[in-house]
Amino acid sequence: MTRYFIWQLSIALSLFFGCLILIGEDTIKVWILFSICVALAIVGVSDLLQKKHAILRNYPIIGHLRFWLEFIRPEIRQYFLESDNEKLPFSRNQRALVYQRSKNLSDQRPFGTIENVYADGYEWLSYSNAPLLAPVDPQALRITVGEFNCAQPYSMSVFNISAMSFGSLSANAVLALNKGAKLGGFAQDTGEGSVSKYHKVHDGDLIWEIGSGYFGCRFEDGQFDINQFTEVALDPQIKMIEIKLSQGAKPGHGGILPAAKITPEIAETRGVPMGVDCISPSRHTAFNTPIEMLQFISELREKSNGKPVGFKLCVGKPEDWFAILKAMMESQLTPDFIVVDGSEGGTGSAPVEFIDHIGMPMRDSLRLIHTTLIGANLRDRIRIGAAGKIISAFDIVRACSIGADWCNSARGFMFAIGCIQSRTCNTDLCPTGVATQNKLRQRALIPADKGDRVFQYHKNTLHALSEILMAAGLSHTAGLTSDLIMRRDERGIAQPFSKSLMHIEAGSLTNQSPELAFTAEFSFLKQAWGRARPEVW
């Protein structure tokens, strides 16, 4: 294999020069070359046996080039900052932050911010002149889901692992994530690939995501099987059930896992046959209308013995969301939670146009759902999670100030287990063993080591969050409001989120003229509200 070429070449050359020495060609030059080759061969063996770096286990010898570049990166970054006063790409800065926190390294930085604080879009938190005397206990940063409807409400962290399926992720990646979730007392969303045996090894809390393919709870023809659902849902490790209406990176598209990538383990976990493409349809077949979806949610809650049941969506047409909201108002059937996924969310593979231009961004979706639930007098009954490029503690603060109760992160926890954004997720050639089913490649990811890093990343991010809350004089993320986050607009004027985000008065959508709840700035929503029908999408 090409990634082993340098190591294999060093072994071959060691043998070649060793033979020359044995036959009498023992010049100084031959001895030097022999020594270099032997040293490289030993380094390669050491790389393959060590368990700290996935890159070195998959790319012996040549993988050291990456760490050499990491070593000099501060100087490279300073060069770019001094030459054009622009910060490095978002992904590199955020990935570096995750690496520091997951390795329990200091994330403090000298010489002030690298942000252009006068640029359009710069955001900051308004702190208090009366901050708390000590940081909030990170373990207290939890919220309860399902208090209104459920016999088994779930107390969850405000920061959890977002939906990523076994099949997209390797077995070792799933093991590492669930170990970290267990150590830190937070939840792992299974993704729509169902609950695998690897999710169960460490007994970390699970949110079972059910997509349109109904993997793990389906008949052979792909239709939903309530009996299989009940059998899986009663597992005490599963704390909540999440119906995926749409995914931020490719809403309305569905998905496919090619037959060539389906292993016997994936087939068993998903309940699909070998040798056939595994299809996730673009829409559900277990329900066809908003009312039917709410009835479906009620049935799943009952069959799971009262566990919280909700749904995830990336908002498309506002009237589709309004149709769901009207169905709730008319039927008084409500989900226990809604996870808002934004169009900026990631995926292992999706068409470029879907990634870039389909669906509503998370902040807009989150505010729309949060404030219209207030207008319908339903916000107290429904918790809201947010997903979409959430990595740092400030990302959590910002999402909660807009309306979220908790946040999910996929890429942050992928960085923690070694993802380097090689963008080969769809090729089965992941260099770090995170997103591949290739047994040789995924052996590079050591679950015991990377599980600890998942735990450390979560712990240190919550610690940073607690310090931010302390500075704002708050004891919980529930106290965050849109007045506390400032943003500079294209004119250079700074104003709080509350001045630019949509706002609806409590109960205003229950009045005789609900369209009056929308201000002139959001008048297009009046028409969407009028078009929405609870009996049809």
Report on this structure.
With 537 residues, this protein is an alpha/beta fold. It folds into 2 domains: 1-88, no CATH class; 138-252 and 290-500, TIM Barrel (Alpha-Beta Barrel). The chain has 19 helices and 15 strands. It has helices spanning 5-22, 28-49, 54-58, 64-84, 90-102, 171-184, 197-200, 226-233, 264-270, 290-303, 318-331, 352-357, 362-375, 393-402, 411-416, 439-442, 447-471, 497-500, 524-531, and strands spanning 123-125, 142-145, 154-157, 159-161, 187-189, 205-210, 238-244, 255-257, 278-280, 309-313, 337-341, 383-387, 406-409, 485-488, 494-496. The strands form 4 sheets. An 8-stranded parallel sheet has the order 4-13-12-11-10-7-6-5. A 3-stranded antiparallel sheet has the order 1-14-15. α5 crosses α17 (447-471), α11 (318-331) crosses α19 (524-531) and α14 (393-402) packs across α17 (447-471).
What is this structure's SSE topology?
Layout: H1 5-22, H2 28-49, H3 54-58, H4 64-84, H5 90-102, E1 123-125, E2 142-145, E3 154-157, E4 159-161, H6 171-184, E5 187-189, H7 197-200, E6 205-210, H8 226-233, E7 238-244, E8 255-257, H9 264-270, E9 278-280, H10 290-303, E10 309-313, H11 318-331, E11 337-341, H12 352-357, H13 362-375, E12 383-387, H14 393-402, E13 406-409, H15 411-416, H16 439-442, H17 447-471, E14 485-488, E15 494-496, H18 497-500, H19 524-531
Parallel strand pairs: 4-13, 5-6, 6-7, 7-10, 10-11, 11-12, 12-13
Antiparallel strand pairs: 1-14, 2-3, 8-9, 14-15
